[in-house]
Amino acid sequence: MVFMLTDTHCHIYKEYYDDINILMDKIKDSGINRIINNACNYASCLEVLDLVKKYENMYCVLGLHPEENLEDIDRVLTLLEKNFDNNKVIGVGEIGLDYHYGIDNKQLQKEVLIDQIKLADQLQLPIIIHVRDAIGDLIELLKSNQQYLNNGGIIHCFNESIESYK
């Protein structure tokens, strides 16, 4: 039996690693066949787009994380539209809601998430949702926008119980 192991959620950026080549060699030696590098802001979107050109086993998702500069949404959406036909761009993420550090931008987080969900649907790409201390709003938002949830996805950083879904 041959296993194809995929790391579905990593953040490989030069700000975190001194030498990405060494890291990628270690990943390959560990038996992980593919990795999905998750962007979280405009700069990391640009960086992961460059990295996927360099590494055959790296794919990426592009999106705007709720803790990042949400004012960059138009630039991120434009970048997604320009790169959706790149076979290394396999989803929209890391997107979501995060109220852990406060809710002063709660409504903006919701609007930015909906914009990204709608574009993911239009581009027929799955989504990677980050949710922390905001599960009630996320479930409500997903239910009210279920017509845009046609391509699957995953929820990441979920810190609630199964009862949250009832």
| N- and C-termini, Cα separation | 39 Å
Structural class: alpha/beta
In this structure, how is the largest beta sheet organized?
A: 6 strands, parallel
Q: Which percent range describes the beta-strand content?
A: 15-25%
> How helix-rich are the residues, as a percent range?
25-40%
**Largest sheet strand order:** 1-2-3-4-5-6
Number of strands: 6
Shape, per Cα inertia axes: globular
User: What is the overall pLDDT average?
Assistant: 92
Radius of gyration: 16 Å
The unreliable regions are none
The quaternary structure here is single chain
Question: Total number of helical segments?
Answer: 5
Order of helices and strands: EHEHEHEHEHE
Which SSEs are present, and which pair or pack?
Layout: E1 5-10, H1 20-29, E2 32-38, H2 42-54, E3 58-62, H3 73-83, E4 89-98, H4 106-123, E5 127-132, H5 135-144, E6 153-156
Parallel strand pairs: 1-2, 2-3, 3-4, 4-5, 5-6
Helix pairs in contact: 3-4
Description of the molecule:
- The structure is a single chain.
- The protein is of the alpha/beta class.
- The chain is about 35% helix and about 25% strand.
- The chain is built from five helices and six strands, in the order βαβαβαβαβαβ.
- The chain has a six-stranded parallel beta sheet.
- α3 links the parallel β3 and β4.
- α3 runs parallel beside α4.
- The longest helix is centred in the last third of the chain and has 18 residues.
